[in-house]
Amino acid sequence: MQTLLELLSEMRQLSGREALRFYNGFRTWKLTYGELYGRIGACVAYLDRQGIQKGDRLVIWGENRTGWVTVFWSCVARGIQVVPVDYRSSPELVRRIHREVRARLLVTGDLVDASAFDVKQVSFSEVETLPIQHDLELSEISLDDVVEIVYTSGTTGEPMGVVHRHKNICANLNPIEGEMHKYEKLARPFQPVRILDMLPLSHLFGQSLGLFTPLLLGGAVVFMTELHAGAIFETIRRERVSVLVSVPKLLLNLQHEIERRFHPRDVQARRKGIPGIIERWWRYRKVHAALGFKFWAVIVGGAEVNADVEAFWTRLGFLVIQGYGLTETSPVVALNHPFNARRGSIGKPLPGQEVKIALDGEILVRGASVIEEYLGARANEQRRLEDGWLHTGDIGEIDAEGRLYYKGRKKEMIVTAEGLNVYPPDVEAVLNALPQVRDSAVVALRKGGEELVHAVLILRDPPADPAALIANANRGLESHQRIRSWSVWPEEDFPRTPSTMKVKRGEVARRILQGGPVGQGDGIESIVARLRGGGAHAGEALDISSLERVELLSEIESHYGVEVDEGRFADVSTIGDLKNLLREQGDLRIEQARILLPRWSRRWPANALRWLALEALILPFFRILARLQVEGTESLAKVEAPVLFASNHQSHLDTPAIFAALPRRLRHRLAPAMSQDYFRAWLQPRGGSFGERFSQMLQYFLAVGLFGAYPLPQRMSGVRRALKYTGELIDDGRCPLVYPEGKRTPDGTLQPFKSGIGLMATRLHVPVVPIYVSGLYEIYSIHDEWLHWGTAKVKLGPPLDLENEPDEQSATRTVEQAIHKMASRGDAST
Q1: What are 222-276's pLDDT values in tens digits?
Q2: Which among 128, 105, 143 has a CA at the least distance from the CA of 6?
Q3: Chain segment 187-205, per-residue pLDDT in tens
Q4: Helix (H) or strand (E) holding 680
Q5: What is the pTM of this model?
Q6: Which fold has domain 524-587?
Q7: Can you tell me whether residue 86 is helix, strand or coil?
Q8: Which of 21, 103, 148, 816 would disulfide-bridge 753, Cβ 3.0–4.6 Å?
Q9: Every domain of the chain and the residues it spans
Q10: What gap in Å lies between CA 819 and CA 829, rounded to an integer?
Q11: Which residues, 6+ apart, have CB-to-CB distance to 479 below 8 Å?
């Protein structure tokens, strides 16, 4: 392969195969290679209209998703230079990079705020809705043309652009492609091989596994926005993932999730090779069943994997593949062979890569994939290339078989007064093995001209005695490695790099030298302050809405990589309570709420019985009870499922009235949301009588069975779980029906709308069909014990596209105004 254009041709050949899945925390979008190719053609046409040509540059600043992939390949097709930036980068950094590269366009995701940028920009959402165009004309591209400029921190911390050409990236991919072809027939029964890529596409390793490898395999890539272990676990199962690409921190969190759910015993296999793999697989078959039998390997990059973590996954029967590389090596230097891995090693150098160890232990790399050019204000000062050898800044060793072993960062190595080297990861491994220690960071502290080994601890149990823990750890260390001083970190986690989640040891050391660790924007207070737009301190009340709680919960879980019990989170009232809860969640012992998501109601027997009951019994009876008038049916002529229906709430009879008003093609796709709080006595049985619990249970199953309803909480916990289930319904082609007022009207008038409908519309990306019902309050209101005969009217409005609404509140107001307008027209006509 000479240029990446050859992969675009391969994409066209794979037209019917699955290419990509994107899960945004609520629903999943899927694309085939043919559909992706058509979107690339549409994006190329858009770039042509903007006058962006070969050699021009554009900045991509956003999360992994379909739009990212589309824009990247569109730039490859046209010879436009991509400048990818991590979506968690500060606006100041993005502005500086944009100015330095003189970008013609800024492309943004949903998770960044570029509203203050006075530059030409387009969003991923806009790119993803461009009209498909399969005619794609490729530009003339040579192997010396620039593909992208990836910014990385230099030795002084000043960002510099690493210039990657087609020849660099292809030189890195060619040996990997050659090895894959050897196992092509073996992989065929497992297609599509789905790779869950948790690394950002703004980094070369993330691109290698998320953009290039799936194409070479003829497989697919899966992206997701949530970072906590519970979400990753469920995504692996739901999307039938084969391989997880992760950083060590996420892999450790996922290990904790497995330990919490299954408590796997540490038993070594008695056999070697394939029989040993089968033995381990059978012993831990419950874990494999829960993750899905397609899942078989993890690929780890970005940092070194702890030996205990690697041993855990290997013991369960999964392959653990470590890779080593840098941005300047495009990116892989060494990779463990999946079927010939050595524990603790980061593999053998790829063919075409020369690796040697300098006298001071530094890893030096030379080869065709090593870049030749930097871009940036101080690029020449920070060049790490000498006589063609790249000085990596990493310390390592090579064994007699040519396997590479990573020891740590050269600048983080501690040199004792005796001249002996101490590598922080070695000491941290001993500390982290102590049950009272949740995490640790080892840094150098200078005292009297000497470098001392200093440990910084995050404790699971705050009353634990740090001095005793240090003494315990020192008994397992060599004399030169022993810890001389220690500190206890007061926050929930150390400062970390955004993408690879490495501990910023330099930042930890700096804050200790300044007089002890002080919260500086990475803690709970900072997250709450960003959400509320103001300051926050430990004793202060949270004072946020239920929807803001959902946002806060998601951000905390992604930031700390843990899953928080939603039921206990619902009882949190102050920031201090929240911090205490998070400390308790350190061991990830999460209680599951008794919430039943009625997936059984979507299976064919339930669907058939519901169709029969509705058409033969329920709707005929309703039409006898109420003379139904329907308006606006023509507005649904071009509406295809899935959509969201939003209606005012007059009576318990609203749902059968809407069922009766809808055309059959939509009627049997309807999934009404019902109040979970109404069934509190059954779902939370403490204190309720047997009769009350039984009555509510019976009503619950009748509502689910006869109408396909599902529970949606208002004050109870489980809001996020219910929203995720709503996304499942949408993915299944269903049409959720919600009542934004949240309760039946007490007087027949419209009540204020709650913002849940706006959240659903903006996160689920489906149109909202407004519905106004009238007359049902007179037939059976909240105050009535008996039904009355009368006339009911259902007005169906045209679908509302809320994609461009700035936030959930604005989307909610749009729906509310539409229904108020329909109500006013109805009142005027009467």
Answers
A1: 999 988 888 999 999 999 999 999 988 899 889 988 998 888 887 666 666 667 7
A2: 143
A3: 777 788 999 999 999 999 9
A4: helix 680-683
A5: 0.83
A6: 1.10.1200
A7: coil
A8: 816
A9: 413-513, 524-587, 599-829
A10: 15
A11: none
Q: Where are the beta strands (DSSP E) in 24-145?
A: 28-32, 57-61, 81-85, 105-108, 121-123
**Residue (of 109, 257, 23, 27) closest to 732 by Cα position:** 27
pLDDT tens per residue across span 685-718: 665 688 888 998 999 999 999 999 999 887 766 7
Closest C-alpha among 32, 365, 76, 20 to residue 195: 20
pLDDT for 537: 56
Query: d(Cα 712, Cα 719) in Å, to the nearest integer?
Result: 7
The CATH code belonging to domain 413-513 is: 3.30.300.30
Residue 360: Cβ-neighbour burial (10 angstroms; 0-12, 13-18, 19+): exposed
pLDDT, tens only, 403-440: 999 988 888 889 887 778 898 988 999 999 999 998 99
Q: How far apart are CA 562 and CA 227, in angstroms?
A: 8
pLDDT one-digit tens code per residue, 133-152: 888 889 999 999 999 999 98
Choose which CATH entry (3.40.1130.10, 3.90.1170.50, 3.40.1350.10, 3.40.1080.10) describes domain 599-829.
3.40.1130.10
Residue 211, token pair as written in the block: 């953009």
Each residue's pLDDT tens digit, 716-739: 667 778 888 999 999 999 999 999
pLDDT score of 826: 62
Rounded distance between C-alpha atoms, residue 155 and residue 160, angstroms? 10
Amino acid at 201: L
**Which of 66-70, 487-491, 734-738 shows the lowest per-residue confidence on average (mean pLDDT)?**
487-491
73 CA to centre of own chain? 22
Half-sphere exposure of 801 (CA within 13 A, CB side): 4
Q: How far apart are CA 826 and CA 649, in angstroms?
A: 16
Compute the C-alpha angle 256/546/574, nearest 5°: 70
Structure tokens at 430: 């001993």
Say how far apart CA 422 and CA 515 lie, in whole Å. Answer: 24
Q: Find, among 582, 577, 521, the residue nearest to 556 by Cα.
A: 582
Lookup: tokens for 36: 């992706």
What are the angstrom distances between the C-alpha of 799 and each of 596, 742, 771? 31, 21, 10
HEC readout, 631-649 = ECHHHHCCCCCCCEEEECC
Helix axis angle, 604-613 relative to 690-707, nearest 10°? 90
Do 413-513 and 524-587 fold alike per CATH?
no
Phi-psi region of 582 (alpha: psi -120 to 50; beta: other; left: phi over 0): alpha
Q: Are strands 146-153 and 18-23 parallel, antiparallel or unpaired?
A: unpaired
Closest CA to 757 of 712, 704, 716, 721: 712
605 and 564 in contact (C-beta within 8 Å)? no
